[in-house]
Amino acid sequence: MAWPLRLLTGEPARVLGAVGTLVRYALTTVIPAPGGWPLTTLLVRLAGAFLLGLLLESLVRRGIDAGKLRILRLLVGTGFMGAFTTNSSLAVDVTMLLAVAASGAGIALADLL
Fold first, then answer.
1. Which of 12, 37, 53, 72 would suit a FRET pair with 64, their CA atoms being 20 to 30 Å apart?
2. Is the backbone of residue 36 left (phi > 0), alpha (psi -120 to 50) or beta?
């Protein structure tokens, strides 16, 4: 009998989500924010989009979205990449830019990403 998909991906996806969050946080401590501009958010979201596209393209080339391929997509794509590129970081950065009267920068960042 096959294990339900949620049992195979639930906790591991949470763990990979935590890892994705930690990687994003670590990058914010290493990459400077020139003039208060959230450069890390921009770089993380661009890198995340590229890596997610690379992951999905490589999985599609391997076969149908079932079994181990689906589990890998859910764990890495949803778990790690979902937390790595989270929209909440973008929302916080846009709110912070708007709060310091950098409305043009906040709107540009929101529009860009």
1. 12
2. left
Report the predicted TM-score, pTM, of the whole model to 2 decimal places. 0.75
**Could you tell me if 106 and 98 are in contact, meaning their C-beta atoms sit under 8 angstroms apart?**
yes
Structure confidence at residue 106 (pLDDT):
63
**Do residues 19 and 86 lie in contact, with contact meaning Cβ atoms separated by under 8 Å?**
no
Per-residue pLDDT tens over the stretch 40-87: 888 998 999 999 999 999 999 998 888 888 888 888 998 899 999 887
C-alpha torsion 99→104→108→110, nearest 10: 30
Q: Please report where in the chains the tokens 């989500």 appear, as a residue.
A: 17
Backbone angles phi, psi at 106, to 5 degrees: -65, -45
